[in-house]
Inverse folding.
């Protein structure tokens, strides 16, 4: 029991900005960085994709704030903790929405907002189920992302798919978690582009 408590205390010391960090420290802001063109897309679409309405991603209230969360799965997988001195520059839901729009545009999609789209344009909705920096052990962590993408035509559901991606974090801190989550989001966006390309939307 003492050994387990020691592991938990050690992990908190390793995590820069853990909840017990000094309040006098300045807050560091993170985002996904620039959406540079992806080097390669797995299963790229065979034909140009049509215009799409992309709505804002939805998710839990925790993902609609700037707080950066992590989880010590080896100690208590049911408790989400937040970094004291590290924040996202905007909410994860907004970052996922913007990165998805950028990747779709890079793939040749005409990305439209709900207010600008004419009737009959397919609508892509995304719900984020999990977005967290998870620690499997005091020495290993990863950025976990799970999202569900649904494509509608009017009120009819054309297709739905869940995308789950895990990326190893290069460092055991908020910065490493941010990089890992950015990579997982790019991987999910690439998967969504390939999925949409296989639905033959141009024939509708």
């Amino acid at each position: 029991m003492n050994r387990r408590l020691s592991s938990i205390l050690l992990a908190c010391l390793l995590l820069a900005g853990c909840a017990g960090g000094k309040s006098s420290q300045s807050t560091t802001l993170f985002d996904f960085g620039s959406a540079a063109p992806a080097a390669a897309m797995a299963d790229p679409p065979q034909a140009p994709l049509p215009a799409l309405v992309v709505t804002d991603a939805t998710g839990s209230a925790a993902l609609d704030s700037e707080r950066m969360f992590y989880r010590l799965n080896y100690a208590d997988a049911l408790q989400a903790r937040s970094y004291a001195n590290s924040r996202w520059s905007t909410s994860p839901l907004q970052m996922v929405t913007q990165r998805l729009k950028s990747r779709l545009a890079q793939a040749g999609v005409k990305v439209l907002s709900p207010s600008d789209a004419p009737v009959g344009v397919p609508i892509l909705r995304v719900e984020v189920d999990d977005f967290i920096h998870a620690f499997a052990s005091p020495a290993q962590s990863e950025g976990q992302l799970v999202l569900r993408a649904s494509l509608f035509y009017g009120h009819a559901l054309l297709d739905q798919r869940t995308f789950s991606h895990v990326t190893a974090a290069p460092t055991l801190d908020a910065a490493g978690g941010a990089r890992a989550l950015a990579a997982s989001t790019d991987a999910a966006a690439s998967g969504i582009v390939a999925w949409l390309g296989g639905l033959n939307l141009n024939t509708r």
